[in-house]
Design brief:
The protein is of the alpha/beta class. The chain contains 21 helices and ten strands. Helix 5 packs parallel to helix 6 (about 125-135), helix 5 crosses helix 19 and helix 7 runs parallel beside helix 8 (about 185-195). The longest helix has 21 residues, at about 450-470. It is globular. The two termini are about 35 Å apart.
Amino acid sequence: MKNPLKICDLVLRDGHQSLLATRMRTDDMLPIAEKMDQVGFWAVEMWGGATFDSAMRFLEEDPWERLRLLRKHMPNTPFMMLLRGQNVVGYRHYPDDVLERFIVRAHANGIDVFRIFDALNDVRNIQQAMAIAKREGAHVQAAICYTIGPPYSIDYFVNLARQMADLGADSICIKDMASLISPYDAYELVRRLKAEIGLPVHFHSHTTSGMATAALIKAVEAGADVVDTVISPLSMGTSHSPTESVVAMFRGTDRDSGLDLNLLAEIAEYFTQVRRKYARYESGFIGVDIGVLQYQIPGGMLSNLVSQLRAQKAEDKYPEVLAEVPQVRAELGYPPLVTPSSQIVGTQATLNAVLGERYKIVPEEVKNYVRGHYGRPPAPIDPEIKRKIIGDEEPIDCRPADLLPPAMPKAREEIGHLARSEEDVISYALFPQIARPFLERRARGGGKEPVAAAIAGLLVHQAQQQAKEPQPQAPIPVGPAPSPWKSSWRPGSGRWTGLLEGAGGIR
């Protein structure tokens, strides 16, 4: 092996976030953790993205405890997390003190690699996170949000990577969250990055459009050092290329990864069984979605748009929304469609289509985007749309977080005795409306164990009733998964509420 390809497996984060609405429980990760630790992955991505709030919101789990437990069972494998720059693991900008304490404690609890991105590719929004992670001794991986449109070109992305290298990046990730990169563009971009930037290159692409595996091969041929894959039972669809297939493709070449296919097959067999447990959270999407190439909408965003329309009984507007998304995106300066810009564009497009009048209602998040509170858009915002949204108000031109006062002291005071650790305070600072009830339930002795006990008791009671009066039992209804997009129109309020809550299917 002259230059073995390094593999990063995403099954414990992006795999189930992409396919199972981020619902995989820690209890289903731990039994296979030690076997995964034997593989020799470059890293395993197991934290960040939507997994942090989903753990508390849907699973009655402490995300920090998941990190600690997996670290205990996987002492030899580097852990990677996805960090949304100044958005941390949330859907808005947080003050620097919250960002700092989060990174410090995440690293102390077991995160080795911080993959850091900004939804607008505004490096001002990742510079602080990069500096803190670097100071703490972690590997700093700066991520380019790859997308297409008038502002974007190979030169654009190479120049962006150069800025990231100047800020101290240890490696560069090409993050193709919407499955838009073609094989030959992947080859050229990796070739240029290797020649002109000189840092290790990590390639990440979803399989939604059907191009990802071909693009991965060309990226490796151009010199990519690491690639993202997912163990086969949670691969493909809106997920990623299968780990075993990628390992097999390069066997016997100078990029042979050296990973044991028999061991990977054992891991795959385990996750085949696990996936069945989460069938109710499947999106129903299989195969290839050419719509992602037509509308440049990530798969997770598509499912959220459907949920949004279904909640408003406006599913017939779906074709209009699909056509509206690229138009709104162009008018707002061609942001990459990734959290939180995907939700901002998607909700405005939905409102435009449902109400039948463009920008009749503008959510506060969209106004703040136009005001510059999320950063600098990749291209200028349409002047007419800007006036329609914020009038003559001038957008800010500084780093948005510079305007935010420290938040940790206030969070510590507000959560009080419910916090047993600094990690609890951080959770509250990030998601007060989710963390407080979670911590209150924990204080009362609530959580998954009592819930499990209650379910067991209910089943025993039902069995006793059946024994007394044998008769056909009505099946327990199992409805669709709760919509990860908690938006609703509040009559008389003039705004669409909860725009960015719990976007479980978005990167």
